[in-house]
Amino acid sequence: MEAAHFSPPLSSLLSRPHSPLPPRSLRFLSIPLSFLTRLSPRGGARRASQSRRISSSAAGDPIVARPSKELRKERNGSSAAAAEDEKLRALRQLFSRSDVGIDAYIIPSQDAHQSEFIAECFMRRPYITGFTGSAGTAVVTKEKAALWTDGRYFLQAEKQLGRDWILMRSGNHGVPTTTEWLNDVLTPGCRIGIDPFLFSFDAAEELKEAISKKNHELILMKDFNLVDEIWKERPKAPSKPIRVHDIKYAGVDVSSKLSFLRSEIIDNGCTAIVISMLDEVAWLLNMRGNDVPHSPVFYSYLLVDITGATLFVDDNKVTAEVLNHLTNAGVELKPYEAILSEIESLAANGAKLWLDTSSVNAAIVSIFRSACDKFAAKHGNNTRKQVNNESSPALFSNMNKSIRNGGPNGLYKVSPVAIAKAVKNKAEIEGMKGSHLRDAAALSEFWCWMEQAVLENVELTEVEVADKLLEFRKKQEGFIETSFDTISGYGANGAIIHYQATPESCSVVGHKNLFLLDSGGQYIDGTTDITRTVHFGEPSSWQKECFTRVLQGHIALDQAIFPERTPGFVLDVLARSSLWKIGLDYRHGTGHGVGAALNVHEGPQGISFRYGNLTALQKGMIVSNEPGYYEDNSFGIRIENLLLVKEVDLPNSYGGISYLGFEKLTFVPIENNLVDSSLLSPMEIKWLNDYHSQVWEKVSSLLNGAARDWLWRKTRPLPQN
Amino acid sequence: MEAAHFSPPLSSLLSRPHSPLPPRSLRFLSIPLSFLTRLSPRGGARRASQSRRISSSAAGDPIVARPSKELRKERNGSSAAAAEDEKLRALRQLFSRSDVGIDAYIIPSQDAHQSEFIAECFMRRPYITGFTGSAGTAVVTKEKAALWTDGRYFLQAEKQLGRDWILMRSGNHGVPTTTEWLNDVLTPGCRIGIDPFLFSFDAAEELKEAISKKNHELILMKDFNLVDEIWKERPKAPSKPIRVHDIKYAGVDVSSKLSFLRSEIIDNGCTAIVISMLDEVAWLLNMRGNDVPHSPVFYSYLLVDITGATLFVDDNKVTAEVLNHLTNAGVELKPYEAILSEIESLAANGAKLWLDTSSVNAAIVSIFRSACDKFAAKHGNNTRKQVNNESSPALFSNMNKSIRNGGPNGLYKVSPVAIAKAVKNKAEIEGMKGSHLRDAAALSEFWCWMEQAVLENVELTEVEVADKLLEFRKKQEGFIETSFDTISGYGANGAIIHYQATPESCSVVGHKNLFLLDSGGQYIDGTTDITRTVHFGEPSSWQKECFTRVLQGHIALDQAIFPERTPGFVLDVLARSSLWKIGLDYRHGTGHGVGAALNVHEGPQGISFRYGNLTALQKGMIVSNEPGYYEDNSFGIRIENLLLVKEVDLPNSYGGISYLGFEKLTFVPIENNLVDSSLLSPMEIKWLNDYHSQVWEKVSSLLNGAARDWLWRKTRPLPQN
User: What are the DSSP calls for A238-292, one per residue?
Assistant: First the structure.
């Protein structure tokens, strides 16, 4: 859970009252913060500076498909509370070093690529604070040390933080933001340091602006990370080999993808673009890696220009097959650390560089801007300032070509890869469908086994259940690892939206309450994400009413038909209406994008009550449909399928446009014994029965024996009222 | 129709690709443009300058509760096509007058107050062009003359414009905006004149910006309107007396309303505010007028400061009773024309003036800014520039009080009156309910009469039907006039969303197609707006399916329950889902705000697919619920009720917040013979039957004889399937 889950540290770092995403951003939110605002302070991987290098030849094992128990033990073991004071003292000693000279240092949770899941060697905030929750920002001054985290982690942080740390409960009344606090505790005119790899350029600019109110200066220290300097026994950087993602799953070859990107570059009057989001690199190059848990990505940057492309990656990850694949596509290799020097030389050669400043880190953007300034000073022109006007990012593209000639400059605009990646091609859709059926077979075997075990009064903990599910998934062809840490919550634990069971404290799953299980798999050909809620005994009529209303929302969204160009948030109300009728709701979005054999959360589309995301749902996109209801200290309900957006063939087409709808990808029974069918309309009952009939049709041939019998029982129709 | 209907001339004047409201803004749109963007070029009433004065003692009759036939004849009579060339020649002659000196003149449709309905003496654009449609902007250069209007009016404009006019079909591919055209046809560096009363300050600024690309200068000619100068037999300004709106209908006395406003002024660090929207003035002062058709408002400005208030109005409209009423509330009187000089002297006295620049006209804001500059120059400080920074309108309120002392300045922020007026108090709600029941009685009598007439093969035209409806309304207690021009459309005419029948060309209403009737009344205690669609013969099964799907949307919105703080646009999809399922839609919003014995369209709330309006629906607000479907050249369907937002009492309250729902205000039968009940769910059939049972219960006691029998027949329940 800790490192693997999405965290919104911006909310704790900067005050953004009008942000479309409140701090309670959740794993299964309609869309991760990074895709919507891309303002989070992220970044921070390995550096060009020799002093920052980590030998990746001695790299530790990335976490791949290991059972939850093992995983958690390791992580807990690393948070040694006793050594904390020593760490803070060591860190503060560095403040006065001649090449440092700062009064405070901010340590966010991020890596250098806005990743949702990060490698252990980049978990600096957990190391320095001892707090292992996924979301949090640490700030250390010469006298004080404070950690900001959100409501999900208050209890955990209280336990894990040493007494020298102040816990800042983000979102609670009167709790300052990090910059408000810094402006309060420091005397005016201080120097506040950050590792610019760990912040997007936009986030660093916001930070700079906020602390300038007290005349503090933001110091970008790109040559070393202070936590790394004191980190004894720092985990090794990941070094597992990269593999080629077969064209039969990718559907489109690398050359075609690069051609598309080059036409975008040219259309925008640029000569090159830096791609820094790891899933964008993996998608563009039809390659997959093993560097972080749950996402098949590899640490790298990709630079694409009009005629060539360069991948910045550790060459020990590059196999002969990958090298051949890259060579065929005209992609050169350079060391991961070489990105900064390459950016500098691009500027010196007058490049017009496309940089998505909401995702590209401040180290890269700053060095490009400095190099542009140097160029301008040397050649006596002043184009940089004109073009790097953040308030009008489109300025560049509107400029006359003749004006643009002569010097380097930057176009600061959202990366064109996100939407191209979100719209799946035929092969990707086939892969998603196939992997979902195998995943459904694994889940059927699992649920059959579990039902039997609970009936036989076997004492199974939430963690053991998750481990067992992994066993069943592992037996499926093409399975690689979980696509996120399984959420396995019995009774009251199901009401904790971000619940992460630990072997030490987790509950036994019984037959007296609801059991919520949210899990997913990474397969060679696709990525799954499914939630089912069950009751192995007799649910109360209140639980049945809540479940039925969640189901009604799920059905309403599943059945929606809508005109093209409709943003996802328009549909969110359909999933909530039935709950609202009796004064219930859920505090998360309804749907997020999902990658094809890639990240389980991807943008730019989403279905959420947060209407900041205007991305229209498009044919070929995949979204989750996961309404829920959570009763504190009692139980949690969520029903999640993945849906493919498709064009629907209707008798009419008002406005001469296309109408879109959804096709289900997930085929696992929904628990009929939790349905109060008296609340359902005949159409809703028909939906449920049709769905179960499809589940049987598609999945039964993948099953044998008890599991097949279980599927038969679970797919029998409900009688119409 | 022409003058009375809402027009969005901004769309034709300025290019706004990201405007939340496309040009096809419609009468029954969820929210008039002015409330959403308040960027329209509006304004233009009567001026301080002697040369602009119109003797209001000889004023013409305002149009009040006269039959449609009479109304249209008059208006048509006034558009004499023969004299057009003469008008253009006369106008252009003025261009070179020493106190003018311009190369082009823009004539918008507006008055000086962003009014939806304007007095005839301000219909300058219809006068100069001959085109009498409600929406349009005329631009005259020394060589050319062009009129911009939208798709609703292309045919009418073709007929009415003389051959010297170019018709610009706004929204059609390749048609330039007015400023694009001006930038194209004029040589760079020209002087383009406007009457600054007819543009909001924001709109004038946008205009200035757009023409500056070709170095044109915007000339604000506040001392005279060029059209007025050449307008022979210009209609007199309205002069009917103002009346006091009884406290039993207003609910809250003027002193309390002014106290509220003063606390807003003080909280925002200001000393005074200018209110220029006519309904805001009428609401604040509990007064009603007769100056424009359909809205009980009177031309005026209101200036409120910390201790007093001044109403700028022609004193011949002020009766002894009104004078007494104003004196009791501490409101002084000044002539309407004195507003500019008052603004100047306010600035000279160092006022901090709250100006809603999206609605207050450019004449007022400009004179205030000039006066601030003069003050600064005289007193050697430079505060004006700091404060009048349009890009940070909140700057003023954030400034330290000590900085703000010493000189006048402006706070440019939305008027606080709009939301206060939108949330109805108990007396206003009672008045709305009462007037709706009387209106329902009038409609029942009308529909009973009409059904009989059609059955007897009486040839009734659409205009005659509208006139007859007015007769029935006039018999109701407290009826004043129609709240907008009745839309009476038979068959294909019903598909023209803005259809306005004329005696010359209208259809006879028969029993072979659908008949759509959208109408409303102004009563002493409330304002109504209702649409019903009927078929006096045998509707086709396709028409029944369309009607039933519109009805399903109407029911879904009516029955919605939603958490407080939900903006109206979130609910819009509920009204469309049933149509979308078969590829149908409608090109207008679903609901607009309605005033209490005030404007039939008011903001700030609305229910629309245009998600720019983030105003939350609040308890006490009134909205229309009017989904529709329009089949070109065939038929139109719309079902409209008014709804009151109310708090609902639910068994749960997730999040500890209030949940809101709707209470119906409109009680007139919905045509059961157009319902295909096989498409309806049991709950939808129950909704319809419950509604009709309420209609009978509430309205039958107001009816006798045939009308009562008609109501009985029309409220019989549909059988459940």
Answer: P-PPPEE--HHHH-S-HHHHHHHHHHHHHHTT-SEEEE--HHHHHHHHTEE--SS
Q: Measured between alpha carbons, how far is B42 from B54 in angstroms, rounded to an integer? A: 20
Chain A hits for B568, CB-CB cut-off 8 Å, are none
Residue B35 has φ and ψ, to the nearest 5°, of -80, -25
Interface residue ranges in chain A relative to chain B, Cβ cutoff 8 Å: 560-563, 567, 569-574, 577, 579-585, 587, 609, 611, 650-655, 659, 681-683
CB-CB contact of A298 with A221 (8 Å): no
Write the CB contacts of B353 (distance below 8 Å, at least 6 apart in sequence): B270, B271, B272, B273, B274, B343, B346, B347, B368, B408, B409, B410, B411
Determine the distance from the C-alpha atom of residue A86 to the mean position of all C-alpha atoms in its chain, rounded to a whole number.
33
pLDDT exceeds 90 at position A702: yes
How far apart, in whole angstroms, are the C-alpha atoms of residue A250 and residue A246?
6
How many CA within 13 A on the CB side of residue A192? 28
B489 φ/ψ sector (left φ>0, alpha ψ -120 to 50, else beta) = beta
> Cα-atom radius of gyration of chain B, to the nearest Å?
25
Helices of type H across A380-425: 383-387, 395-398, 401-404, 417-422
Q: Which residues of B touch A581 (CB under 8 A)?
A: 561, 650
**Which of A47-51, A568-572, B692-696 has the least mean pLDDT?**
A47-51
User: B659–A560: do the CB atoms touch at under 8 Å?
Assistant: no
Counting Cβ atoms within 10 Å, is residue A155 exposed (0-12), middle (13-18) or buried (19+)? exposed
User: Which chain A residues touch B659 with a CB distance below 8 Å?
Assistant: 580, 583
- How large is the average pLDDT for residues A98-121? 96
Q: Residue B586: which of B535, B639, B528, B624 has the closest Cα?
A: B639
The enclosing H or E element of B572 equals: helix B569-580
Distances (CA, A) of B409 to B126, B339, B391: 38, 17, 15
Query: CB–CB of A585 and B574 under 8 A?
Result: no
Question: Rounded to an integer, what distance in angstroms lies between the CA atom of residue A8 and that of residue A135?
Answer: 6
Backbone angles phi, psi at B161, to 5 degrees: -75, 140
Both tokens assigned to A720: 């119409």
Q: How large is the angle between the packed helices B254-267 and B278-285, nearest 10 degrees? A: 120
The DSSP 8-state label assigned to residue A552 in this structure reads: H
pTM: 0.86
pLDDT digits (tens, 9 = 90+) for A29-83: 333 333 333 223 333 333 334 344 444 433 333 333 444 444 333 444 444 445 4
Out of B567, B611, B652, closest to residue A582 by CB: B652
CA distance A7 to B490: 59
What residues contact A539, with CB distance under 8 A and at least 6 apart? A514, A547, A673, A674
Q: Verify cis geometry, omega within 30 degrees of 0, for the bond prior to A604.
A: yes
Select from A567, A580, A655 the Cβ nearest to the Cβ of B659.
A580
How many Å is the Cα radius of gyration of chain A?
A: 25
Residue A515 DSSP code: E
Q: What is the ipTM of this complex?
A: 0.84
The encoded tokens of residue B42 equal 């509006």
User: From CA B14, how far away is CA B311, in angstroms rounded?
Assistant: 33
Taking alpha carbons only, the member of B312, B414, B297, B300 closest to residue B355 is B414
Of A28-32, B47-51, B82-86, which gets the smallest average pLDDT? A28-32
Write out chain A residues lying below 8 Å of B579, CB-based: 654
- Phi, psi for A426 (deg, rounded to 5): -60, -45
d(CA B701, CA B690): 18
- Residue B54 above 70 pLDDT? no
**B655/A582 Cβ within 8 A:** no
Nearest to A450 by CA among A567, A368, A531, A536: A536
Searching chain A, which residue's CA lies closest to the CA of residue B681?
A681
